[in-house]
Amino acid sequence: MNNDEKLKTLIEIISSSIGSLTNPTKLYNTFINECNKNINNETISLYLKYLEEAFLIEKSKRFDVKGKKYIKTPSKYWC
């Protein structure tokens, strides 16, 4: 599988789960279990960063009201 196919598949997965809690590990598991495609967590994180920088997706961090701080993961992604 080439990089274009991996990126396209990642965009499809994120688009189909808009607003759901996710992180690179969950996306990796989706690639392996449902798409039968191999990609590593670092590549997924890098692609997510590129998509954010291109303003194609937006990462929404969770806020812990009781602890008054942002939770690092999992996050939600929006188109």
Tell me what the structure shows.
The protein is built from three helices and three strands, in the order αβααββ. The radius of gyration is 13 Å and the shape is globular. The mean pLDDT is 83. It has a three-stranded antiparallel sheet with strand order 1-3-2. The protein starts with a helix and ends with a strand. Strand 2 (58-64) and strand 3 (69-78) form a beta hairpin. With 79 residues, the chain is α+β, with helices and mostly antiparallel strands. 47% of the residues lie in helices and 24% in strands.
Number of helices: 3
The total of beta strands comes to 3
Residue stretches low in confidence (pLDDT < 50, at least 5 long) are none
Share of residues in strands: 15-25%
**What form results from the Cα inertia axes?**
globular
Order of strands across the main sheet: 1-3-2
Percent of residues in helices comes to 40-55%
Round the mean pLDDT to the nearest integer and report it. Answer: 83
Q: Spell out the helices and strands N to C.
A: HEHHEE
What is the gyration radius calculated from CA atoms? 13 Å
What gap, in angstroms, lies between the N and C termini?
25 Å
Structural class: alpha+beta
* Biggest pleated-sheet summary: 3 strands, antiparallel
Index terms:
single chain, 79 residues, alpha+beta, three-stranded antiparallel beta sheet, 3 helices, 47% helix, globular
